[in-house]
Amino acid sequence: AYRAEQSTIKTQENGGWHSDEELGRLESLLKDIESWYQSKKIDNAVQQLCADPILKPETLTRKLKEQERTITNLLRKPKPAPKPEPKKEAPKESAPKETQENPEDTAPEGTETE
User: Fold this and answer.
1) Region entry Disordered: which residue ranges (predicted)?
2) What number of H helices and E strands is found in the chain?
3) Distance CA 64, CA 2 (A)
4) pLDDT score at 55
């Protein structure tokens, strides 16, 4: 279940706001807990039935809460405020345009005006 939630967390590269370092810590925590659980499960399987269990519910609950706390902290991390856009200056009034009294003077070369 937590692996599915982890896949919804995006890094800064793909539009998210979580750093690769934060996601790396989460990934290493998940791997550590999985390897811990697998080793305890194997130890518990080879143990005699009359002995005290190695894997106790309290221990398992504590590990899962640690994992849940880390994921919840990442999911609750607020999205950073967008960077303010530079203010656009109002277009300055350019110098008054010269009035064209005689359009013949401004005709392109090679064209005749009548």
Assistant:
1) 70-114
2) 3, 0
3) 10
4) 86
